[in-house]
Amino acid sequence: MINWLAFGSGVIAAFVLGFVIYGPFLGLQRRWAEGTRISPEPPEKLPAGPMLAQIIALSLLALVIAITETTGALGAAMVAILAVAAQTASVGAWAKKSGFAIGVDVGYALLSGAVMIIAHAAL
């Protein structure tokens, strides 16, 4: 049976992690934005569409991890996380992002998956 508390906690923790990584907290925001070729200035209002898409993507990854947790297939979860990271790198390269921006995006994908696995281990 899926641990819905771990699922939800993993999604929320990964989403908050995104605020930490892409926000002003770590000092990566300006360099990442420049490497992504977007304005480094924070938007006037939150970008609802991209944020919704991010929540959906995180929820789908968390669901894969939750399902693999019920069957003891942690290896499959790790492959799914690596697939997300590889796809992120590919899209970033096609969009001609800087290596730094791609690295931040890939790091976020990997850390999000790790946070979700940790949520299942802890709860």
UniProtKB/TrEMBL annotation:
Segments traversing the membrane: 6-28, 48-67, 73-95, 102-122
Keywords in alphabetical order: Membrane, Transmembrane, Transmembrane helix
InterPro entries referenced in this protein's UniProt entry, alphabetically: DUF1761
UniProt-listed Pfam families: DUF1761
Keyword Membrane in record: yes
This protein's name: DUF1761 domain-containing protein
